[in-house]
TrEMBL record:
Domain of life, per lineage: Eukaryota
Pfam families associated with the record: DUF223
Name by which UniProt lists this protein: Putative nucleic acid-binding, OB-fold protein
Stretch list, region Disordered: 269-299
Domain Replication protein A 70 kDa DNA-binding subunit B/D first OB fold: 36-123
Chain segments annotated as transmembrane: none
Organism: Helianthus annuus (Common sunflower)
Low complexity compositional bias, start-end: 274-287
């Protein structure tokens, strides 16, 4: 633990969060449940889950939080507590939070590698914080050799960056429960010319398809944040996962700009050729490889 002085937004609870001792997320465990523990985090991702009982109502809001060490944890705020906490739940913003429940992160839809997850209720306190906590997007990229050597546990949550090497048009995939889900299969290559297979689902598949339909020129650099890793048939796969994944395609952000710059620095006649987008028609066997593996998110 470390002691810090954080500048917080002005409100009646501010004094309780000034000059507090901050607990890092890797120190959060079940014994911390509902005690006077304070975390300082950036909200990396936020999504709403609709109510199945009340039309137009929000059942809950889930967030992925990151602390100054880059540790991430998933948290939930039920809909009936949003009147108190909703104004503090803004992506990219820093917040101080104290008093929360801690549970085990055992869901098949878990979106961080932390062994616990958090639950905020009416007793929880949140304050805006002006301190910088990690990078704005909170990326933590995994090297492709770890995928290719199967050095990670199955369903390990990862961020990847690379350039689009191969793609196949989006199609409707029938899941094991009979639902049709939009799916798009692509290959992504890193700066060392190592390829991995990537499956994009639903809105991310639609985003990728819309992009390639415009037939863009030049290298397409993309980031998939919060994907799930699997290894099957001697090949590495990363799949987008439920609501928690985000896809960046040639965005004007520091990480993509730096990756493009690294490619230019290595550029030669051979490397330029290796970065041309490969036609899906010329590698149709890859689509068969994709079809062999299980769908981690929607099957």
């Amino acid at each position: 633990m470390s002691t810090t002085t954080s500048r917080v937004s002005s409100n009646k609870d501010s004094r309780s969060l000034e000059n507090v001792e901050i607990t890092l997320l890797n120190q959060v465990n079940a014994s911390n449940s509902k005690v006077d523990v304070t975390i300082k985090v950036r909200i990396i991702k936020l999504w709403k889950l609709p109510s199945f009982k009340i039309k137009g109502a929000t059942h809950s809001v889930d967030v992925i939080l990151m602390d100054e060490e880059g540790t991430k944890i998933q948290a939930t705020v039920m809909g009936n507590y949003l009147s108190k906490h909703g104004k503090f739940l803004v992506e990219r913003e820093c917040v101080l939070i104290k008093k929360f429940e801690v549970g085990d992160n055992v869901s098949q839809y878990r979106l961080t590698n932390h062994k616990h997850r958090l639950f905020f209720d009416y007793d929880s306190n949140m304050m805006r914080c002006n301190d910088a906590v990690g990078s704005p997007h909170g990326f933590s990229f995994t090297e492709f050799d770890l995928f290719l050597n199967n050095a990670l546990p199955s369903n390990f949550v990862v961020d990847i960056i690379g350039y689009l090497y191969t793609y196949f048009d989006m199609y409707d995939h029938k899941t094991q429960n009979g639902q049709l889900k939009k799916r798009m299969n692509i290959q992504v290559r890193d700066a060392q010319n190592r390829n991995i297979y990537v499956q994009l689902w639903e809105s991310l598949a639609e985003k990728m398809q819309k992009f390639v339909d415009k037939k863009p020129n030049g290298v397409t650099v993309l980031i998939l944040q919060t994907g799930k890793f699997t290894f099957s048939g001697g090949k590495a796969y990363v799949s987008s996962a439920f609501h928690g994944s985000t896809l960046f395609i040639n965005d004007d952000i520091e990480e993509i700009i730096a990756f493009k710059r690294s490619l230019l620095e290595k550029e030669s006649d051979d490397s330029v050729s290796s970065r041309r987008l490969v036609s899906s028609q010329s590698v149709t066997s890859l689509q068969e490889e994709f079809s062999k593996i299980h769908n981690n998110s929607f099957s």
